[in-house]
Design goal:
Length: 126
């Protein structure tokens, strides 16, 4: 009898746990745009990725550079820049990506975004 009650209790807890784990903490994007030439949804997805911690998109909205070379988001990329001697100790990022020390760099990376999407990138958060 005790085993049956204990088993039922464990099943109830497991069910509640599993049901709770599937819930999203942010509201889903219900405005899906299927037009492949419209980059608005891609930009919105990139901007959403910053708040969700997902850095799988092409552009790092947080830092204003392509994600695959972002020395602030990727420790492997950062280590490579440090190995090459391209590092700003004061701002903890690649010197070639330090908009604080060289504001003109921001425009260099913005030009890459503009070439890909045909418009100015979102302003870096950081």
């Amino acid at each position: 009898m005790k085993t049956t009650i204990l088993t039922a209790f464990v099943l109830v807890l497991a069910t509640a746990f599993i049901a709770g784990c599937g819930e999203s903490r942010t509201a889903p994007n219900t405005e899906a745009n299927t037009d492949a030439t419209d980059h608005t949804s891609a930009t919105a997805a990139s901007e959403e990725s910053v708040t969700s911690g997902d850095h799988s998109g092409w552009w790092c909205v947080e830092h204003g550079i392509p994600e695959d070379v972002c020395s602030m988001c990727n420790s492997k990329v950062a280590a490579e820049f440090q190995r090459k001697g391209d590092w700003c100790d004061e701002h903890n990022r690649a010197r070639s990506q330090c908009f604080h020390c060289d504001p003109a760099l921001e425009q260099r990376f913005a030009a890459q975004y503009e070439a890909k999407y045909g418009k100015q990138p979102p302003k870096p958060i950081e």
